[in-house]
From TrEMBL:
Active-site residues, as the UniProt record annotates them: C70 (proton donor/acceptor), C182 (proton donor/acceptor)
Any Pfam family matching the protein: Asp_Glu_race
Keyword Isomerase among UniProt keywords: yes
The protein's name: Glutamate racemase
Family: Belongs to the aspartate/glutamate racemases family.
Keywords assigned: Cell shape, Cell wall biogenesis/degradation, Isomerase, Peptidoglycan synthesis
Catalyzed reactions: L-glutamate = D-glutamate
GO BP annotations listed: cell wall organization; peptidoglycan biosynthetic process; regulation of cell shape
Gene: murI
Amino acid sequence: MSIAFFDSGIGGLTVMREAARSLPNEDFIFFADTLHVPYGPKTKEQVTEYVCEAAERILGQSVKALVIACNTATSVAATELRRTYDVPVIGMEPAVKPAVEMNGASGRRVLVLATELTLSQAKYRDLVSRVDDLGIVDSLPMPELVEYCEALKFDPAELGPYFLRKFDRFDLSRYGTLVLGCTHYPYYAELLEQILPPHIRVIDGSAGTVRRVARVLEERGLAGGGSGRVRFMNSADDPAYQAKLERAWAILNGVML
């Protein structure tokens, strides 16, 4: 049986990469909802419908856990999936808590990058309210970045100026941590580390999510039994997007095709 990872597009591959590194004795399925990518600009009701439709297809496979490797989809649909299915459903949330813990003593602020829909949800507001006692968390929507990522646009000459324009209104000397609150964004982590002041740490929620997956599988006696096999699916059954998934997976793993 496999661990399934789900996202609207190629973003969730960043989470599956962390799982493949940390859980080598598991098999993996990645499902991209290519019919509806990107989720960020859509309504909560639309995204919930899309996620439930995708879950039906995914769970028709031999799956022992479903990871919603998308902060937006988690924020609007995780509760519905857990209510509907017996299989463990593990979601994502922006790594605001560890970022606040890193910066509390320093007095520096935290900047969270995410989609507009993620930032607008009560789940995100409740998270910030729960962990941000010092009021040091700021948020910045970056909807274009998902589209750049889906187009496999990673050229620093193009993306560097884009990031600098987005950060222009922030005094970056006041910030200690940048949180990548969308699973597409870690594709740009290395570039961000190059253009941001060296004191700013760039983090995301992948490692914490994978630790949660490992813990749930151990608790249910479902851990192991695989060999690291990876399989890709997409909701449009589109061979061209299948090739894109394989290309993006290779890029994440440092393989040149």
